[in-house]
Amino acid sequence: MINSRLIECVPNFSEGRDMEKIRQITDEIESVEGVMLLDVDPGRDTNRTVVTFVGEPEAVCEAAFRAVRKAAQVIDMSKHSGAHPRMGATDVCPLVPVAGVTMEETAEYTRNLARRIGEELSLPVYCYESAAFEEKRRNLANVRAGEYEGLRKKLEDPAWKPDFGPARFDAGAGSVIVGARDFLVAFNVNLNTTSVRRANAIAFDVRERGREKRDGNPITGKVIKDADGNPVLIPGTLKAVKAIGWYIPEYGFAQISMNLTNIGITPVHVAFDEVCRKADDRGVRVTGSELVGLIPLKAMLDAGRYFLHRQQRSAGVSDEELISTAVRSMGLSELKPFNPEEKIIEYILRDKSSKKLVDLSLSAFAWETSSESPAPGGGSVSAAMGALGAALGTMVANLSSHKRGWDERWEDFASWAEKGVVMQKRLLDLVDEDTEAYNGILKAFEMPKKSEEEKAARAAAVESATLQASLVPLMVMKEAFQVFELLQEMTGKGNPNSVTDGAVGVLAVRACIRGAFLNVRINVKGLKDRAKAEELISEAQVIDNAAAELEEEIIARVSSMMAM
């Protein structure tokens, strides 16, 4: 699914207490083929449920329409109360481009969805962010100003005529706000206070909009306005951040509730640390945090690296350790356990049914290799040896960065460790890519060949698959050769107690390159394009020769270091 044209939909429904009503809404979403329901996050005190689902654009729009229709049927806004601003049974329904879809295309899908809601459900619909028809409606806060209680009056104002649907107040369903936006992270920071006033003060300190400038007393003073009569604002410290403070009776403390609208500008870890600083300035302590909905993997990995670097420690570790560091550092499990498989979007979207070689245990991989199946074979094992060589180099870099007395050198070694992790990941990917390439040849040979057209198509498929099976081990050689730079540095400057570990890494990488070269040679024999075959062999030979020289040089140096 992750390789398709994908958009994400994150509707917020004004019901967080009646799980039967929530189930009826999510059942409508799941009734649409091609849509994957990723997350359902109800909040009792906000009386609001954030739902996340993903799929092909047309399927997502159909699921969104059905969910909005059902919400209008089961939620009565005239009886609704909650801590979060809201204007309708489906308060907001944003569409987010994930893969293979532009923001412009997403905005068009959004407007078509809004039109259908307005016409078929006779509800007032507003478009915001990238789907907005006018600038003042881009900002969600502007559109939602006055909330449900002020909606009747708002609909009477020609300046706030709905983009679609009637300008008629529906007491039960309210209005719907539909938008197209970038990936947004909803992130709450927990405080050791029950004071909404103090929580709001911290929120105003950090949010981009900041607070209104006042004459004299910053709380009770008269709001200062510009020449056009608009309030003069004192901006907050974080760009692309919206924030408010509220008290959650269910938890017994106040929170800073933030929407991070561009985590490329203000990442989660930066927002967390800034709230910590501003809270401390006001005598309040941060005790943890809460992620509402989903988060991209990169955001969690970047957070893990950030907090490790704050400790002057290497971030050249596994993704699992980086995520664990981020969770502990930001207290993401304070309210309930943070499960990466349920909260990180890439982990949810990955195909868990596919069996990857690199996910096997070492013994299982060895037994799988020794079976009568021709794959995995020498190509996958070569890539695995290269990954182990990179792992040894990374280990030496990590040990060196933490070596007592070398504190001033930690950053240099940490940088090498992080480079080593990238090399290791790429070579691990190639373990499976080599087997997939071999299976591609088998699949091509299984194609029918009765007619001349079928024979031609089969021959073309075999040639293409054979070329791919030749290119993958060549890529293994190229990726593994880069590891020599890491190993050369670590055997020469790294922790002297680990010099032989680096040397074993050299031998592993050399074996990887020699093994991959053998695979290039055997596979190009099947190519009809002999010029291409010679080109690949020539390129591989250059790498193999250079690898032999580096192996001899590094092993000779290590041997001299161990001479009695």
Could you characterize what this model shows?
- The protein is α+β, with helices and mostly antiparallel strands.
- It folds into three domains: 175 residues, Formiminotransferase-cyclodeaminase, Chain B, domain 1, CATH 3.30.990.10; 165 residues, 2-Layer Sandwich (Alpha-Beta Plaits), CATH 3.30.70.670; 204 residues, Four Helix Bundle (Hemerythrin (Met), subunit A), CATH 1.20.120.680.
- 51% of the residues lie in helices and 14% in strands.
- The strands form four sheets. Strands 1, 2, 3, 4, 5, 6 and 7 form a seven-stranded mixed beta sheet that branches. A four-stranded antiparallel beta sheet has the order 13-14-8-15. A two-stranded antiparallel ribbon has the order 9-12.
- α2 packs parallel to α3, α6 crosses α7 and α13 runs antiparallel to α14.
- The longest helix has 42 residues.
- The model has no long low-confidence stretch (mean pLDDT 93).
Q: Could you list the spans in which at least 5 consecutive residues all have pLDDT below 50?
A: none
Return Rg in Å.
29 Å
Fraction of residues in H or I helices: 40-55%
CATH topology call of the largest domain = Four Helix Bundle (Hemerythrin (Met), subunit A)
CATH architecture of the largest domain: Up-down Bundle
Distance linking N and C termini = 59 Å
What is the total number of structural domains?
3
CATH class of the largest domain: Mainly Alpha
The helix tally amounts to 17
> How many beta strands in the DSSP annotation?
15
How large is the share of residues in beta strands? 5-15%
Q: What name goes with the CATH superfamily of the largest domain? A: Formiminotetrahydrofolate cyclodeaminase monomer, up-and-down helical bundle
Class by alpha and beta content: alpha+beta
Largest sheet: 7 strands, mixed
Shape: globular
